[in-house]
Amino acid sequence: MKQNRINFVALLKPYKKGWVAISEDFKHVLFYGKSLTSLIKKSKKSKQKVYYFPSGDNYSNFVGYYAHHHSI
Q1: Which of 18, 43, 46, 66 sits a CA distance of 20 to 30 A from 25?
Q2: Burial class of residue 21, CB neighbours in 10 A (0-12, 13-18, 19+)
Q3: What's the CA gap between 42 and 61, in Å, rounded?
Q4: Whole-angstrom distance between the N-terminal and C-terminal Cα of the chain?
């Protein structure tokens, strides 16, 4: 199976503080929010599967968080 590399630093660079919802293919930021709660509210209006990630200036100790918005 071929592994695809995703450059999250480049993808999240425009979003300095807050949270982003990334598309299922990990190519696009679909939603942005100052808090995870506000982001979840925005993304619930969409039928797309999204992945939530914190955005910031430094990703050296980065840990992602996955939750399907229908499960929250």
Answers
A1: 18
A2: buried
A3: 27
A4: 31
What contacts 17, CB < 8 A, 6 or more positions away?
A: 34, 55, 56
pLDDT digits (tens, 9 = 90+) for 5-54: 778 778 888 988 899 999 988 899 999 999 999 999 989 888 888 988 88
Cβ–Cβ under 8 Å, residues 59 and 9: yes
d(CA 51, CA 72): 12
Which alpha helices (DSSP H) does 27-71 contain, by range?
Answer: 36-43
The three-class DSSP label of residue 17 is coil
Neighbours of 69 (CB within 10 A): 20
Q: What is the rounded distance in angstroms from the CA atom of residue 54 to the CA atom of residue 69?
A: 16
